[in-house]
Amino acid sequence: MTRFRGWYWLFLIAALFAIVAIAVARGAVSVPLAAVFEALRGRGDPTVVAIVRDLRLPRVVLAALVGAGLAASGAALQGSLRNPLAEPYLLGVSGGAAVGAVIVFALGFTADFAVTLAAFVGSVAAVLLALAVSRVGARGQRADLRTLLVAGVIVGAFANAAIMVALAKAEPNTIRGALFWMMGSAADANWQRVGWLAASILVAGGALVYWAREIDVLSLGEETAASLGVNAEKSGRRVFLIAALLAAATVAVAGLVGFVGLVVPHIARRMGLRAHRPLVLAAALIGATLVVAADLAARTAAPPTELPLGAITALLGVPFFLVQLRRAA
Amino acid sequence: MLVAGIPLGGVSVLLFRRSLLVVPVLAVWACADSRAPSLGGNDDFGDPIRIGASPTRIVSLNPATTEILFTLGAGTRLIGRTKYDSWPDSAKLIPPLGDGIQPNVEAVLAVHPDLVILYASQDNRPAAGRFRAAGVNTLSLKVDHISDFRRSVLLLGAVLHDSARAKTVIDSVYRTLDRVRSATAHLTRPTVFWHIWDAPIITIGSGSFMNELVDIAGGKNVYADIAGPSAQVSLEDISRRDPEFILAGPIGKAQIASDPRWKIVRAARENRVFAVDTMVVARPSVRLGEAAVSLASLLHPGTLR
To answer: What gap in Å lies between CA B297 and CA B305, rounded to an integer?
Structure first.
């Protein structure tokens, strides 16, 4: 088993900064590195300044935040639910967000904040519904936390069915808007969105780090948790809710960017991390690096066309994961 | 789409299918290749074309062919259309039978058509097979390019036993196109960015009839190097290509005006954004001439009279 060493942190942070620097420097317009630094400080050609400060930088930062949020959420869920397949999108978060987005598209609102807000409200509603369903499943007895996972999947399936029914009757523009939204993208980044997501991640991510010890205990199993004096059901639900809110915030601003929440926590564990405080933090760093790299590839791999971000995260994530798996074997 | 996890996969595939023909502009985006115009014995699915007695009960499941049928004087023989057919106005009086992609076969057979006209996208192959199996004469046509329009009109003229009128329709459209082309031929060609969709930004490539229209109207599409009918592009790349004009629908024009990030594109900053009537330029059909005239009068005001 690999042991996680202190200098790995330096490596993870350096990798993130390196990819962020490359991503800000590269794009359709080739800008010399010196001009990029000038532009960051607001000097030089105003068009270059606008490209670097208003287009690339918010986009890169948004991609990093999306990756960090999804990966941290996945790490917390996999630990507390003790299921390596748990990931935020499986728990009704994506389905609920999509229902919210489809509803506002159908009502004809296309304003940025309307879609963001509706997606967020939709995913929170779906998660609360999943929690309620898991309670019904438990019939007053102590609920097995795995019921939560099943409840999330069921709510997600219901949400998807609702989307299909709604879109069967929808106007073409509604379908188009919803379809593109579901593909996931960081292309519409602006500082407002970045600020909103950064605040959400600070609050929800901070809460996960704060309650990381409880995730550690939960990951040992509910009976062990009970014997250690932790109310497994209560703290399990709490982690579930926080992790879902974290994922919901990313979905609201960037649509569905798959695979990060599932695979990045595994990569972090393969580096030798077991305790959830460092695991959540490392997953966030790796997730941020991966999504920034994926977005860079989405922008630059097939010019002048942009590729769908979610597909790229999977294309980059799978080989990365396989290498890790091989090394560990 | 695997990005959304297993459950959403089905949804998005379905959405994709639905959105193809349904959204006229997206149809452009989805259907790539153009076929050489020919009046051979087969339609675009390779099925033999049956020219028998002139059909009297026609279902047209493509807004472009519905437009053609009306101009060929067969509007009164139409007994079914898609829910998206909106031109001419009298088309709206024909009962809508649902979608044009993966149509409701039962609903179409229930009105006892003697000719069904389908849009020849792969999604429609099973439906074409079913209509044929039910003994209904079926004609599957791809109408994606100006040359497709010409071929479709000739074919439909032959099926309706009115080739003379078909030639008149083609002549009138082509004469207008030629008039616009020759009026703008000697002028300098401004570069044009065509804004189809805002988030993400979708534009047209040289595989779209809208690219042909821009050429005829005396412009030059800045994304003519994209071979497909359409593609997603970035604001940064648009600013690099620095188009002289932006064409957009009325909604798109408002979006460009309200989003400060568009200011990095000079044409947006200097307010050279034209609103085009998306209903006129949306289909490669009988209003191609009108579309070319409207584009030319935007790009070269005063040239046509």
So the answer is: 9
What's the predicted TM-score (pTM) here? 0.81
Residue B219 burial (CB count, 10 A): 26
Kindly determine whether residue B199 and residue A180, on different chains, have CB atoms separated by under 8 Å: yes
Three-state DSSP at B219 gives coil
Q: How far is B235 from chain A (nearest CA, A)?
A: 8
Q: Where are the beta strands (DSSP E) in B20-114?
A: 58-60, 78-80
The pair of three-digit structure tokens given for residue A248, joined into one six-digit string: 């919901």
B94, B79 contact by CB (below 8 A): yes
Per the listing, tokens 């998306």 go with: B278
CA count, 13 A, side-chain hemisphere, A320: 23
| pLDDT above 90 (res B14) | no
- CB-CB neighbours of A219 under 10 Å: 18
Q: What is the pLDDT of residue A196?
A: 92
Burial status of residue B147 (CB atoms within 10 A of its CB: 0-12, 13-18, 19 or more): middle
Is A29's CB within 8 Å of B239's CB?
A: yes
Q: Residue B60: name the closest of B41, B47, B74 by CA.
A: B74
Alpha-carbon separation of residue A22 from A17, A27, A59, B237, B241 (angstroms): 9, 9, 13, 17, 23
- Fill in the amino acid letter for A232: A
The mean pLDDT of B61-67, rounded to a whole number, is 95
Question: What is the least distance, in Å, from the CA of B158 to any CA of chain A?
Answer: 33
Residues of A in contact with B249 (CB under 8 A): none
**Interface probe, candidates A59, A62, A104, A180, chain B, greatest B C-beta count within 10 A:** A180
The string of pLDDT tens digits covering residues A172-216 is: 777 777 778 888 888 888 898 899 999 999 999 999 999 999 999
Q: Which residues of A touch B24 (CB under 8 A)?
A: 172
Q: Point out the residues of chain A with pLDDT beneath 50.
A: none
